[in-house]
Description:
By secondary structure, the chain is an alpha+beta fold. It is 55% helix and 20% strand.
Amino acid sequence: MRQTHTLKEAVESFLKNWEAQHQQREGPHAALQKVLSKKELDHIRVRYFTRGVLGISVDSSAWLYNLNLRKDILLEKLRSQSESVIKDIRFSLGDS
Length: 96
């Protein structure tokens, strides 16, 4: 037997599903923009996202140290922002 829905319910359901799929496709990049400040974003570059590990290149040792100190907090925030499973963040010194 088929369930009947109002147009409003159908639209709300569609938008909810579409938003969830859209967030999954954006991956960690969009979540990083929500979690990090503009100043922090200027000093990093996402290198890879493989098997739940997010690799981030940082342009200076000072920023590398700062981000490593906040790694657990950032990881928790990223997990709450992103539908994708982020198991770990690996920061490395390099061009950003």
